[in-house]
Amino acid sequence: MVPFRLTQPQFAERYRRSLDRASPTAIATLRAHFALPIQDGVLGAEVKIFVSDEEEPDPPAVWIDYLGKDNKVDAADPTLHAGRSLELALGFQACEQFDRRFTTDEKFGGIHLMANALKAWFAECWWKAGGWTYPVPVTLQVHDGFGDGKPVMLTEKPG
């Protein structure tokens, strides 16, 4: 457990180094995901990062939602179709645990530092896995507006 004794820059750097431990798993997971065929009708995708906060002590989660005009909800259909939403297993179990006060202390602002680090880390993993040329436009954002609130375009195809 990383104790609550770091400055904001130290915390941001330590958190990023912790995320880097999960990079090999994340890149391998993304490469496998990119190999899956995308059904006709998918017009784009959104990746959402869910940052763990004081109410959610779990590790962060990353979900990808496939979008189209005719979204369907079918939990039994494993294909990448419009309406499909799935969590990406990125290896967060390899990351260090940080004292909860980093995210619960509003003055410290750790939740926003985490969000920005997660966004930058995930975009880097996506691109290292070959996602820049993914066949549909994909944007990345942090859920609930944590961090700087700016979306990142993960593909060369504009959304």
N-to-C SSE string, H for helix and E for strand: HHEEEHHEE
Our estimate of the beta-strand percent is 15-25%
Mean pLDDT: 90
Distance N to C terminus:
40 Å
- How many domains make up the coordinates? 1
What is the overall number of helices? 4
Overall body shape:
elongated
DSSP summary, beta strand count: 5
Question: Please, could you describe this protein's structure?
Answer:
With 159 residues, this protein is of the alpha+beta class. It has one domain (8-153). 30% of the residues lie in helices and 15% in strands. It has a five-stranded mixed beta sheet, covered by helices on one side. The longest helix has 19 residues, at 110-128. The radius of gyration is 16 Å and the shape is elongated. The chain starts with 7 loop residues before the first helix and ends in a 6-residue tail after the last strand. The model has no long low-confidence stretch (mean pLDDT 90).
Q: What descriptors fit this protein?
A:
159 residues, alpha+beta, 4 helices
Topology:
Layout: H1 8-20, H2 23-34, E1 44-50, E2 61-67, E3 85-87, H3 101-104, H4 110-128, E4 138-142, E5 152-153
Parallel strand pairs: 1-4
Antiparallel strand pairs: 1-2, 2-3, 4-5
Helix pairs in contact: 1-4, 2-4
Q: In short, what is this structure?
A:
This protein has helices at residues 8-20, 23-34, 101-104, 110-128, and strands spanning 44-50, 61-67, 85-87, 138-142, 152-153. The chain is α+β, with helices and mostly antiparallel strands and 159 residues long. Strands 3-2-1-4-5 form a five-stranded mixed beta sheet, covered by helices on one side.
